[in-house]
Structures are given as C-alpha cells and as structure tokens.
C-alpha cells in the first residue's frame, strides 16, 4: 500500500519517538531511556506457581472467553485496595485493561473527534501523546511546575477554549518526577466541574513512593463523576503481564467497555486469574516495600552521581517516588542533538531528550533519566559519561 493511502492519523503517530525507548542491546551499554522496572524484582517464582495453580487447579476456566468487565475477584481486590487509600468505588466502576496504556487509548477513542482540544502537561508521557495523537486532537500544553501543572494558566485558557479532557500523571510524573500538590488537585476538580471536562488521571507510580506523604487520588477527591483514573500492575508487579485497570462512572464505563469489546474483547482471563492467585497467596504490601527501598537507592545513586559530575548551569529534580528524574540544561543546549551525535554513538549511553515529550517538540534543553532499571554501577558510570559529554556544549 502506498503511504498516501494511509489514514491521516498516521502522520500524527509516526513521529512520536516512542520506538527509541527500548534500545537495541548491541548498540547501548547503559540505558536510562525506557521506563523499565528493575527486573531483579519481578516475583518470577511466585508468579510461576500462580500460573501453574490456576491452569492445573483453577475452577474459573482460565482458558475460556469471559466478559470484558474483568475477573470479579480481581475487581473486588482492587475495590478494597482503593477503599483503603480513600477512593470509594463500586465494582461496576472498575474495568480490567491491558495495561494503563490501553486505558489511554480507550478514553481518547471515547472522547475525541479530530481537532477536539485536549489539555496536557508539558512535558508529558510520550505514550500518552502516542495514544491521543491517533485521534488527531489539538493540544493545549500546560507547563509543569515542581508542584504540578500550572493550574492558573489552565484556568485562563479555559475561559476561551473548550477542552474534552485534561491528561495528568499526578504522582511522580513521567517524565519530571514531580507530584501535584493537594491544593492543585482540588483546584483542578473545581475547574473540571465549572468548565465540564474530564480529568484523565494516569497513576501507575502511586505505590512507588519512597519518601514523603501519600496524597489523595483525584478520583478520591471528586464526587461529581469528572475523573477517569488508570492504574497498572506494570511497575508494581511486572509489565509483561500487560495488566491495568480503569475507574470511571458506570455510564462512562459501559461505553468504554463497548469500545474495548471492539478492540480486543477482553483482558486475558489467565493473566487476571494468575495475578489474583498471586495477590491471595503473597504479601503484596511487603513486595511494594521492597520495590520502594530498591528504587530509593537507585534514585540516591543517580542524585549522587549528578551532584558529583554535572557541570554548572544544569539542574535536576529530586523525586520522592517513581522511576524518573528530570535534567534541565541551559537554554542554548540541545540534548537531543548531543545524544544522537555523541552520547549514544560514542559513549553508548541512552536517555530521553525532552524534544519528543512536548507536543510542539520545542524544548530541547531537558531530558528524562530513568534510574529504575540500571544497576548502581551503571548509574554512576553512565552519568559520568553523559556529564563529560555535556561540558563542551557549554562553550557554544
Ligand atoms: N502511563 C504512564 C505515565 C507510564 O509511565 C506508563 C508506562 N511507562 C504507562 C502509562 C503504560 O503502562 P502500562 O504498562 O500499564 O500499559
């Protein structure tokens, strides 16, 4: 087929840069690019036992078709988990998805016509842009601040713009690591009520806080049905399971479920049942605590290396959870150029330059560094190599 025959959406989705995140292992020695969890922490043996138990002794027909809502015992588990965190929802409000990523696609599919407006954080999650762009919206970019997106600017823009939804990663944002303050969460909900838009709350890092106090989810603060929230087992169990969940009002959820029917019929029953079995037979809280401890150490190694090697003129965020740290360079630095021309080919180190994390691709002096998947030694060595390459750039 000739490319001119492709749907117009292909133009918007073909240049997201998402394919650069998982490097070819032959070319790269150290990668801070993809948001890959530390694979030493996957509970492989426990999951193997659960899969075996479900397949050999399960009574809920794990190899059969089921309905799209998802496995009832797993929805019940999630309902109780959310209740313990202050979010009260019914079982009819929970849908199991193939990762949070599917939730992003389904919500965009539900709400967006071509040229509808979506407000996004700037910078934002690259996979959010990839999912939404297929529906060809126009983006309103709201700059990120250390305590979350600039809600005052959003409020100003809402007086002259109608948006379908606002997309936010409120906890340990991908890519900055920033957390939205309680005051901003409340203000955002008030704005959603006043201007009638949905808040799409994408919260895969919520359980990976290793310092500071948990804040209530937007879903917990809202009593008016304006929030659709997404969760995921990818970062707290394993991304290969492709298992996440979506929470919305029953009306919205019914529509979303019909769209899911058309996409994939259902989230694999065997995965849902095996994960439920894992949750029943293991101490999941203790598992999180191990992850939190591990990622704190990774963050500390990266902060220490940056403090030691980073040339003047650069700053970096100090996240209290999650996977990512945000590097901010002087305005005249182009980190994408430096990565492609020097750091990747010569030093064999990878990170995500900021360019692809803005819809307008207009910010080139920042980068997302993931500390989650690399070893302590790789973090120290990789940061040293990056910083050595940054220094001459300051002379421009
Ligand atoms: N949202 C955010 C903010 C993410 O960082 C990721 C994974 N990198 C996803 C969604 C997708 O996660 P999942 O594996 O659950 O599809």
Question: How would you explain this protein's 3D organization?
Answer:
A hairpin with a 2-residue loop joins strand 4 (138-145) and strand 5. This protein starts with 8 loop residues before the first helix and ends in a 6-residue tail after the last helix. An eight-stranded mixed beta sheet has the order 2-9-8-7-6-3-4-5, sandwiched between helices. The chain has a four-stranded antiparallel beta sheet with strand order 10-11-14-13. The relative contact order is 0.17. Helix 4 runs parallel beside helix 5. The longest helix is centred in the C-terminal third of the chain and has 26 residues, at 284-309. It contains 13 helices and 14 strands. It has helices spanning 9-13, 44-57, 72-84, 99-111, 126-133, 151-158, 182-195, 218-221, 250-264, 269-281, 284-309, 335-347, 376-390, and strands spanning 30-31, 94-97, 117-122, 138-145, 148-149, 165-168, 198-202, 227-232, 244-247, 315-316, 324-328, 349-350, 352-353, 366-370. The model has no long low-confidence stretch (mean pLDDT 93). It is globular and about 65 Å long. It has 396 residues and is of the alpha/beta class. The structure holds 4'-deoxy-4'-aminopyridoxal-5'-phosphate. The site of 4'-deoxy-4'-aminopyridoxal-5'-phosphate has 14 residues, from helix 4. 4'-deoxy-4'-aminopyridoxal-5'-phosphate is lined by residues 35, 99-101, 125, 127, 169, 174, 202, 204, 232, 234, 239, 244. Residues 63-384 form the Aminotransferase class I/classII large domain. Pfam families: Aminotran_1_2. InterPro entries: Aminotransferase_I/II_large, Class-I_PLP-dep_aminotransf, PyrdxlP-dep_Trfase, PyrdxlP-dep_Trfase_major, PyrdxlP-dep_Trfase_small. Keywords: Aminotransferase, Pyridoxal phosphate, Transferase. This is PLP-dependent aminotransferase family protein.
